[in-house]
Amino acid sequence: MVFGITRQYLWSVVPLFGFGVGWFLDRKETERMTMFRDKSALYGRVLKDGEKPSWP
Protein backbone atom coordinates (compact mmCIF):
# COMPACT_ATOMS: atom_id res chain seq x y z
CA MET A 1 0.00 0.00 0.00
CA VAL A 2 1.54 3.26 -1.20
CA PHE A 3 -0.18 6.56 -0.38
CA GLY A 4 -3.34 4.68 0.63
CA ILE A 5 -3.79 3.07 -2.79
CA THR A 6 -4.87 -0.51 -2.33
CA ARG A 7 -5.26 -3.29 -4.86
CA GLN A 8 -9.06 -3.07 -4.62
CA TYR A 9 -8.89 0.66 -5.35
CA LEU A 10 -6.84 0.02 -8.50
CA TRP A 11 -9.22 -2.72 -9.68
CA SER A 12 -12.09 -0.23 -9.50
CA VAL A 13 -10.38 2.94 -10.77
CA VAL A 14 -8.35 1.61 -13.72
CA PRO A 15 -11.37 0.31 -15.70
CA LEU A 16 -13.26 3.55 -15.04
CA PHE A 17 -10.27 5.56 -16.23
CA GLY A 18 -10.09 3.42 -19.40
CA PHE A 19 -13.78 3.96 -20.03
CA GLY A 20 -13.34 7.72 -19.62
CA VAL A 21 -10.44 7.86 -22.06
CA GLY A 22 -12.38 5.78 -24.61
CA TRP A 23 -15.44 7.99 -24.23
CA PHE A 24 -13.33 11.12 -24.75
CA LEU A 25 -11.65 9.74 -27.87
CA ASP A 26 -15.00 8.63 -29.30
CA ARG A 27 -16.46 12.11 -28.78
CA LYS A 28 -13.44 13.71 -30.49
CA GLU A 29 -13.76 11.34 -33.47
CA THR A 30 -17.47 12.13 -33.77
CA GLU A 31 -16.66 15.84 -33.62
CA ARG A 32 -14.04 15.41 -36.34
CA MET A 33 -16.38 13.42 -38.60
CA THR A 34 -19.07 16.15 -38.52
CA MET A 35 -16.98 17.96 -41.12
CA PHE A 36 -17.95 15.20 -43.58
CA ARG A 37 -21.71 15.02 -42.97
CA ASP A 38 -22.49 16.27 -46.45
CA LYS A 39 -20.97 14.71 -49.55
CA SER A 40 -20.38 18.18 -50.97
CA ALA A 41 -18.04 18.88 -48.06
CA LEU A 42 -16.35 15.52 -48.54
CA TYR A 43 -15.77 15.90 -52.29
CA GLY A 44 -15.48 19.70 -52.40
CA ARG A 45 -18.63 20.32 -54.46
CA VAL A 46 -20.19 23.76 -54.05
CA LEU A 47 -23.93 23.74 -53.39
CA LYS A 48 -26.15 25.49 -55.90
CA ASP A 49 -28.27 28.48 -54.87
CA GLY A 50 -31.24 27.31 -52.84
CA GLU A 51 -29.93 23.74 -52.55
CA LYS A 52 -30.09 22.36 -49.05
CA PRO A 53 -27.40 20.11 -47.60
CA SER A 54 -28.31 16.48 -47.06
CA TRP A 55 -28.22 16.91 -43.27
CA PRO A 56 -30.39 19.30 -41.24
TrEMBL record:
Bilayer topology: Single-pass membrane protein
Q: Tell me the keywords, alphabetical order.
A: Electron transport, Membrane, Mitochondrion, Mitochondrion inner membrane, Respiratory chain, Transmembrane, Transmembrane helix, Transport
Explain the purpose of this protein: Accessory subunit of the mitochondrial membrane respiratory chain NADH dehydrogenase (Complex I) that is believed not to be involved in catalysis. Complex I functions in the transfer of electrons from NADH to the respiratory chain. The immediate electron acceptor for the enzyme is believed to be ubiquinone.
Q: Which family does the UniProt entry place this protein in?
A: Belongs to the complex I NDUFB1 subunit family.
InterPro entries found in the cross-reference section: NDUB1 (IPR012575)
Task: Please give the name of this protein.
Answer: NADH dehydrogenase [ubiquinone] 1 beta subcomplex subunit 1
| The organism of origin for this protein | Anopheles sinensis
Q: Does the keyword Mitochondrion apply?
A: yes
Specify the domain of life of the species encoding this protein.
Answer: Eukaryota
Oligomeric form and interacting partners: Complex I is composed of 45 different subunits.
The record's subcellular location field reads: Mitochondrion inner membrane; Mitochondrion membrane
* Bilayer-crossing regions: 6-25
**Pfam families linked:** NADH_oxidored (PF08040)
| Primary residence | mitochondrion
GO cellular component terms attached to this protein's record? mitochondrial inner membrane
